[in-house]
Amino acid sequence: MPRFAANLSLLFTELPFLDRFAAAADAGFQGVEYLFPYDWPASSLAEKLQQHHLTQVLFNLPPGDWQAGERGIACLPDRVEEFREGVFQALEYAEVLDCPRMNCLAGIRPESLPADVAFQTLVENLRFAADLLAAKGMTLTVEAINSKVDMPGFFVDTSLAAMTVIEAAGRENIRFQFDLYHMQIMEGDLCRSLSRLCPHIGHIQFADNPGRHEPGTGEIHFDRVFAHLDALDYQGWVSAEYRPQQDTETSLGWFRPRIN
Ligand SMILES: O=C(O)C(=O)[C@H](O)CO
Ligand SMILES: [Mg+2]
């Protein structure tokens, strides 16, 4: 059975953020992730993790101005200094939270920015971040996010784009973040892709499609996909990153028979 984690930015949103840790633990999760930790003191988050015996499995590097629609700055050449400062900030959090991996959001490429410049900027930023993380034994992930529905213009929107940039960066501790929801929209053929990419995958997330709700609300055959991960002997975390169709409690039917 995969090791399942709960994404606290999307699940348990009926509760204030800091109360979601207890709710996730009570529901049977042993790991949690969320988009960003930066609005809270690291010590408060660490206390919640310890109190509820939870592992922090992932969070994102600072994304630029999220409220203004930015979705990462790693491909933007005029934001390199800010990117680097963000890596240092994220590392401070990761150490306090004992979090072994962070995701780097490539960002939305403005039409005026040539793709080759965005690519080279991203490669160099990934190397910078990966080298700092490697010194602490941490992994950096690169996620492909669908550009059809959720993030038009996102620079890394296919597994090929992600693997091309990961290979160009050439660092052992950079891995692919395979989000089943985004990959279903962009490519489908999930089990074959998982087989092919498994050695390069550092983290998995999921939601059903369409709608980005819980398993069983859409077209993905989760029984097959989760069994396939077991057959591949995938050892990483698999995070529920979906918006409950009604409420979180009702959405967890897929999880109850699979509590680790
Ligand atoms: O949107 C996703 O799928 C993510 O995992 C990112 O963390 C944030 O956009
Ligand atoms: Mg995701």
UniProtKB/TrEMBL annotation:
<dbReference type="InterPro" id="IPR026040">
    <property type="entry name" value="HyI-like"/>
</dbReference>
<dbReference type="GO" id="GO:0016853">
    <property type="term" value="F:isomerase activity"/>
</dbReference>
<dbReference type="InterPro" id="IPR017643">
    <property type="entry name" value="Hydroxypyruvate_isomerase"/>
</dbReference>
<dbReference type="InterPro" id="IPR036237">
    <property type="entry name" value="Xyl_isomerase-like_sf"/>
</dbReference>
<keyword id="KW-0413">Isomerase</keyword>
<protein>
    <submittedName>
        <fullName>Hydroxypyruvate isomerase</fullName>
    </submittedName>
</protein>
<dbReference type="Pfam" id="PF01261">
    <property type="entry name" value="AP_endonuc_2"/>
</dbReference>
<dbReference type="InterPro" id="IPR050417">
    <property type="entry name" value="Sugar_Epim/Isomerase"/>
</dbReference>
<feature type="domain" description="Xylose isomerase-like TIM barrel">
    <location>
        <begin position="21"/>
        <end position="257"/>
    </location>
</feature>
<comment type="similarity">
    <text>Belongs to the hyi family.</text>
</comment>
<dbReference type="InterPro" id="IPR013022">
    <property type="entry name" value="Xyl_isomerase-like_TIM-brl"/>
</dbReference>
<dbReference type="InterPro" id="IPR053398">
    <property type="entry name" value="HPT_OtnI_isomerases"/>
</dbReference>
